[in-house]
Design a protein that fits this description.
This protein has 200 residues and is of the alpha/beta class. 30% of the residues lie in helices and 24% in strands. Strands 1, 2, 3, 4, 5, 6 and 7 form a 7-stranded mixed sheet that branches.
Amino acid sequence: MIDLVLGTHNPDKVRELAHSLLGFPVRLISVSELGDWPEVEETGETLAENSLLKVRDAVRHSGRLSLADDTGLEVDALGGAPGVRSSRYAGEGVTYADNVAKLLEDLRGVPAERRTARFRCVVALAEPSGREVCVEGVVEGRILEAPRGAGGFGYDPVFLAAETGLTFAEMGLKEKDAISHRGRALRAAREVLASWCGWE
């Protein structure tokens, strides 16, 4: 059993990360448990750059093996927006509902066949030695005209997954993890962890 620091203060992300790593011989520690240090400013121009900023910060503060992710929603009709700015689409310090409302307003009048989108997640792993790697997961879908479902977080209520015909907010955690961008990226991350730690 080894310690793995999760480089996020977001409790919703911590819950999903923990679920995806169930059964793995790691003790998960959120950065929130390691003292009071500020959120990393996400100044990167790509998801990979932001995930590396966060994981390097976690390693620097904790001195332990760390994992962080960055996720973006790419909507084709909006030229790939909100993309790397997904969590701040409606501005700084906004709620999930604010971001969803802006997205739906920006897509007002766009027909269903042109509302194609994908969630992309980049997970970064890093060790105090300086070794680091990024892996990615993607899931295709489209944006609905109104939210559906009471679960999930972020854009989940308006993202209809192509594989299931359900929004992420209509799925349980296990069902979502099986097909989601974060679930796919974390399964790739598990393989990296197994290799690094000699669990293969």
